[in-house]
Write a structure and sequence with these properties.
Layout (H helix, E strand, L loop, with lengths): L2 H14 L8 E5 L2 E7 L5 E8 L12 H8 L9 H11 L2 E6 L4 E8 L2 H16 L5 H18 L3 H14 L12 H4 L4 H11 L5 E7 L3 H12 L22 E5 L4 E12 L6 H13 L5 H9 L5 E7 L5 E10 L3 H18 L3 H13 L8 H13 L6 H10 L3 H11 L6 E6 L9
Parallel strand pairs: 2-6, 7-11
Antiparallel strand pairs: 1-2, 3-5, 3-6, 4-5, 8-10, 8-11, 9-10
Helix pairs in contact: 2-8, 4-9, 10-13, 10-16, 11-12, 13-15
Length: 439
Amino acid sequence: MRALWAGLCGLLAAAAWPAAAVPIQSWEEGGARVLFLAAPELPMVDLRVVFAAGSAYDGERPGLAWLSNRMLGVAAGPWDADAFAERLDALGLRHVAGVDRDMAYVGLRSLSDPAHLGPAAALLRTVLSRPRLDPDDLAREKQRLRSQIEALREQPDAVASEALYRQLYGAHPYARPPWGEAEAIEALDAEALRGFLARHYVRANAVLVLVGDLDRRRAESLARSVLGALPRGTAAPPVPRASGACRPPREFVSMSTTQTHIAVGQMIGLAPDDPDRLALLVANHVLGGSGFASRILQTLREAHGLAYSAYSRLEPLAGGGAFFAAVETRNETAAKAAALLDETIARFVAEGPSEDEFRRAVANLTGGFALSIDSNAELAAQLAYIGFYRLPLDTLDTFVARVQALDRAQVHEALRRRLDPQRLCRVQAGGFWAVQPAP
């Protein structure tokens, strides 16, 4: 039952890690931006259309963006749900879709030969322009979504994370989870979904990504086919900037579990094009982003035996992203683990990475660069990120050189300037001991 939460985390992780040096081509098609990468090694093509239609655009209807996107993979045009699934199978297509706080995407993976790719493009065109939103399908998907949301309420990590976002973002749209709230799902009807799709799933609000066994001529033809039926529309307004303050600074959520999940964070205003982003990426790799080699896990798990898992991460967002760290521990050791997590972060901000830690982080990040894109689908996700946030087209080409150009002092200076251990918000979710503040 962790699929909903894990899927979002996976999307955010993929978005946060540049991949490999590749020649990206770009042009405009009817008001939409197109990014194309030729990858002829396999006879496959990944198509992905990205929209400024994330949960930040829900307004007062939590879950609207998520459910609207979800319904696009159910039925479209002449195909009801059963026929749609059969159509995907008959053409050997893989449907992909997702929503985070800033963006939503819909796409397909197809064989590149015309007998498959032509019908695939036509199907994606129909999905985007003629969604069915049949009542029975909508009722079923709403029930599934409510069930998944209810399941998350039984998981300390999900409960702590959602509460931490509320602390960090307050009245900002980022405070709500992208999948919405179970109580609000029932009020979402086909009319609301059609209105959202009509406003946001338009060419002026879209980036089309094409990766695979194509040349430029076929890519241009494919772009016209996929986007041709969408109205031009207008681009969505930018997500407002978040101010960032803990409300409240500490929160304890009692749950009937034997483990406690402790989550801390700070809204640091991190944007995808932030000039400090790579320096903070290196710092976070040392602190909690490198698995067993990270300071947090070494301290809490290896040295003190307090943690099942412990990590930190960065989440760049258009409206201002945050730093997060978390540890999972036994209920009876929650207070000690929380205090040690705070202490570890504070010491790291004060001292910065050692020269050895810095060099190993740079080597790991640059050495694993090519391994982070072992499929066209991953490349498509990278291009979608670059295109959506309007990052330079050479972002992937220059990643290694830019990381290698950093020095330890730059990394430490960015860390000290952006992260203040005294301003960390915290949520503890778990059993009896989790509700007891640390002495």
